[in-house]
Description:
This protein has two helices and eight strands. It is an alpha+beta fold and 149 residues long.
Amino acid sequence: MKRIRWFLLTVLTLSLLVACRSTKPQAATQFSLRQTQQTEHVNGHLMGTVNYGAGFFFPSTSDILDISLMKTDAITGLMTEISHLRYRNIQKFPLPFSLIYDMADVSEGDSCSLIITLSVDGSVKAQGLTQLTFTANGFEDVSITLVSL
């Protein structure tokens, strides 16, 4: 009985596979590497270090460090945020960071800024600002020292 069931199950499976097979030729689908690269986003990495004071800090759970990569439009002068990174509960300085951004948002020669703000208990305690120039290789590593307000 087991042999008959196994035989019938095998025949049924094969007949279903044959019935599902199309007799019409299918058009070949071609994918090129160039087409897939055009739709993918290439990420850049801006790496750096944030310094504050003599390297010490008295952290609280309400500390927030915001790092914003901004691009200035050459015609209108408007600034647009390209990427943003937020740290909470900072333990100590210097603080290394790696900011990821979309390379399509920036062109060679664009004027960009890195704005860093340290907030404690909802009020701004220190800030840092630096100008960046985008090259074909991306941004160079940066080191920023925050200034107390």
